[in-house]
Specification:
This protein is of the alpha+beta class and 168 residues long. It is built from 3 helices and 7 strands, in the order H-E-E-E-H-H-E-E-E-E. The protein starts with a helix and ends in an 8-residue tail after the last strand.
């Protein structure tokens, strides 16, 4: 197994585990996950930059109705009622917070694999058919997660900036 294959494996496991754990810990019932071949255009995307040994971005996205469903389900799980008038704000806040939690946890896991990274605060974009791609990314993957809210997609695109150890 090459160093890139090893890094890709730990990267994917770190982010996939973090995705599942964050949804589960926030009482969002997860019906399944699956690998996707592409990151399809969405109506809401929360973006977090990754810096350090890896440079790139993570994207957590879904369509508007699914984003509102996710926020509503989060509120319901906490015993709160979501205000329909604030649905768009709830959707943006939920996507930003979930992407922040996923990135933070995945970066913690990557540190266990001697990959030191930092992250930027989330930036949320809404619109129609939003898509993003880092042209210089070397490692990329997309995972979808399904639940009663619908489906959300986590897309990770990074390049390895870690200096190679002469002894490896």
């Amino acid at each position: 197994m090459t160093a890139v294959d090893k890094l890709n494996g730990s990267l994917k496991k770190s982010f996939t585990d973090a995705l599942y754990e964050v949804f589960s810990e926030n009482s969002i019932v997860v019906n399944g996950t699956r690998d996707e071949t592409t990151f399809k255009p969405m109506q809401i995307i929360s973006v977090i930059g990754i810096t350090g040994d890896l440079q790139g971005s993570i994207f957590l996205g879904c369509n508007r109705d699914e984003g509102i469903g996710l926020g509503t389900e989060l509120f319901r799980a906490q015993g709160l009622a979501a205000d329909p008038a604030g649905a768009d704000s709830l959707m943006r806040s939920t996507m930003a917070e979930f992407s922040n939690q996923i990135a933070g946890r995945a970066i913690m896991y990557l540190q266990n694999h001697e990959t030191d990274c930092n992250m930027t605060p989330p930036t949320v974009f809404t619109g129609y058919s939003i898509h993003s791609e880092l042209c210089q990314a070397v490692l990329r993957f997309t995972v979808s997660i399904q639940g009663a809210f619908g489906e959300a997609h986590l897309h990770v695109e990074v390049k390895n900036m870690k200096k190679k150890d002469k002894n490896s």
